[in-house]
Amino acid sequence: MLECSSEFNSEEGAESRVPEEEEEEEEEEGEEDAAAVLPGAVPLCRGEEEEEGEAAQVLAASKERFPGQSVYHIKWIQWKEEHTPIITQNENGPCPLLAILNVLLLSWKVKLPPMMEIITAEQLMEYLGDYMLEAKPKEISEIQRLNYEQNMSDAMAVLHKLQTGLDVNVKFTGVRVFEYTPECIVFDLLDIPLYHGWLVDPQIDDIVKAVGNCSYNQLVEKIISCKQSDNSELVSEGFVAEQFLNNTATQLTYHGLCELTSTVQEGELCVFFRNNHFSTMTKYKGLLYLLVTDQGFLTEEKIVWESLHNVDGDGNFCDSDFHLRPPSDPETVYRGQQDQIDQDYLMALSLQQEQQSQEINWEQAPEGISDLELAKKLQEEEDRRASQYYQEQEQAAVAVASTSASTQAQQSQPAQASPSSGRQSGNSERKRKEPREKDKEKEKEKNSCVIL
């Protein structure tokens, strides 16, 4: 890991916040300790123990330096031939602040000092506030200026919630349809599109009728009200609405995924809301990708994006150029290098899985088919292939078992002869014995003659 550079300190004025007396005491007591905790420029490709220990030391030193503040690690990537930073997340929380800042960083509207490695939530808020002031429109009418100032005032009142979570209430009719809340003003002022994919398929009439134009909160209230109603039709609507929420617990439907793919513009940088989590999203060559901000991939330079192509969340990892890049083995995830043979094998395996999933004959799909029906057909095709595989395995096992059984039968055939064959063999034995007895009698006669 690299140390927190002097540019980082001077840029944010961190040194000015420390009294001179405390600074002198720190210099007298622990210059050597500070040097050990914050070493100089260190390559990223190091041993796992060194990387983990060093990252923990830097993080601990940062928390001591900025007590009571959240500290985030910065990952530098090569984005469109530019050395660009992104903020990683150390805890699995909503934190829309990181999603918004990563959009601004990837679009180069906000820039950090080179080689900066850690940053606090307070400093991120300062960068965001400075950008909001700089982005103020210049040539606008008086009415527009008053409206903008009012929106800016409302946004500043809720800006602190970006560190924890925003009150976002989706509606199930469109990928950009949210119930109006003051928190949404932040995205409008920053000109950052906010999307979700929790949509009702318009071709399923009963769900469309049950959900209507309700937001999520309104739908939950409607379900509770319908359950307590004496009207059987309302009770049925409440049951259908509840089933919809249960069946779409991932907060992403296939219809929503199709709408997202068609609505998001090519190359657009935006924020995607799902499962109370905010992610940075973009579109490349017709496919959607989510920015990988998990701190566990901090040293994985080739893991930047994750594809969003199904509702289950098992996407494929890609680099900054959207080339498929499987992650390193967990045992070597912090070493920064992976054996090329393993990389080639994993990539070939992933490509094979993608090819198998695309072998469905799309020309046979009838026109006007709903997204739900199409998803069911995909699942049926997958189940059919799995069933065919298991049948082949069973047939192979039966063939092996029958072959071994026939071999054993051939080996034990003389001892396990049938009754008829036993009788035949007995007769032949008696027939063989009769000549022998006659020969013995002749021998006795000869012997008796000799004796006489």
UniProtKB/TrEMBL annotation:
Biased composition (Basic and acidic residues): 428-452
EC supergroup of this enzyme: hydrolase
Domain of life: Eukaryota
Reactions mediated catalytically: Thiol-dependent hydrolysis of ester, thioester, amide, peptide and isopeptide bonds formed by the C-terminal Gly of ubiquitin (a 76-residue protein attached to proteins as an intracellular targeting signal)
InterPro entries, A to Z: MINDY, MINDY_domain
Gene Ontology molecular-function annotations: cysteine-type carboxypeptidase activity; cysteine-type deubiquitinase activity; histone deubiquitinase activity; K48-linked deubiquitinase activity; K48-linked polyubiquitin modification-dependent protein binding
Entry GO CC: cell periphery; cytosol
Keywords assigned by UniProt, alphabetized: Hydrolase, Protease, Thiol protease, Ubl conjugation pathway
The keyword Nuclease is assigned to this record: no
The MINDY deubiquitinase domain, residue ranges: 71-322
Biased composition (Acidic residues): 20-34
Location of the region described as Disordered in the Swiss-Prot/TrEMBL record: 1-38, 397-452
Its EC number(s): 3.4.19.12
Record flagged with keyword Phosphoprotein: no
Gene Ontology BP term (one): proteolysis
Signal peptide from the UniProt entry: none
Family stated for the protein in its record: Belongs to the MINDY deubiquitinase family. FAM63 subfamily.
Function: Hydrolase that can specifically remove 'Lys-48'-linked conjugated ubiquitin from proteins. Has exodeubiquitinase activity and has a preference for long polyubiquitin chains. May play a regulatory role at the level of protein turnover.
Name this protein carries in UniProt: Ubiquitin carboxyl-terminal hydrolase
